[in-house]
Design a protein that fits this description.
The protein has helices at residues 6-31, 74-81, 134-148, 159-170, 212-220, 225-234, 241-259, 267-277, and strands at 34-35, 40-41, 47-54, 57-67, 93-101, 105-113, 118-119, 181-184, 193-195, 198-199, 206-209. It has two domains: 6-113, Phosphorylase Kinase, domain 1 (2-Layer Sandwich), CATH 3.30.200.20; 118-277, Aminoglycoside 3'-phosphotransferase, Chain: A, domain 2 (Alpha-Beta Complex), CATH 3.90.1200. The chain starts with 5 loop residues before the first helix and ends with a helix. The protein is of the alpha+beta class. The strands form three sheets. Strands 1, 2, 3, 4, 5 and 6 form a six-stranded antiparallel beta sheet that branches. Strands 7-9-10 form a three-stranded antiparallel beta sheet, with no helix packed on it. It contains eight helices and eleven strands.
Length: 279
Amino acid sequence: MTSPRPDDIAEADRRFRTWMRQNLQRAARHFGLTVTAEPVFGWRDRSIGAPADAPDGRRWLRVVSEQTQWAQGHAWTGNADADAVAGLPKPRLLGVHEWAEGDWRRQRAEVLTLLPGRPCSPTDTAQPGLAPAEEWWARLHDALRSLAATPTGRVSTDQDKVDRRVRAVFGPTVEVRVERWETVHGDLHWANLLDPLGILDWELWGRGPVGTDAATLYCYSLTAPELARQVRARFPVLDTPDGRRALLYVAARLLHRAGLGDHPGLTGPLQGLVKELLI
């Protein structure tokens, strides 16, 4: 079997994006909204979102598309379930609409409150010159502390997931036995953080290893060494046994993604971090 040509892949991606734009417009019509800006695409184009006007104010409209077998479970309902998390600078879900595309794909449209602020980075990784203010860091600390203490039956990462990811990347002899758990966002990268502080994309939140969010933010900061030093200094948990376990798990997760072509600029810094952790 011959591999797809790059031109064929590019054309398939273009068509998929066109289809996702049509899904966004379909959702806008359903909710009586008007999309007001160029949409943005999520990871691997599985989601699309844009600001939209409603009769009573501005909103964020988002559509996620999944193969039918994956259109269920905690990740599918994460933004809705996150309304149970009180007191954090996060969007509230205002409406949901789902529909099927034959028997092969399912779409989920969500209308959320539109937070003020701009993403700290246009990509998951930190951009050069990113330097949040002291007040921003203080609010992030408060938010993550409050989240960590929030009870939930949702699971972001369990021991089995840690084992699979770590062993797949580092080999069967590397063991990361998690001893403490807390409620985590699960995907705390720079494109999910706003300034003034807002925290977006709650698909993956739930119970996870202590230090997961700090470790995730640190690993996504490795493209900006000064910022990475700040993150490590501001989150002392990263230099505890819990934090080192969280760092190993997050590094394994991101190296797996790098192997699939995501954020290639992180590969070298992550490998350096792993060498430090496995000494």
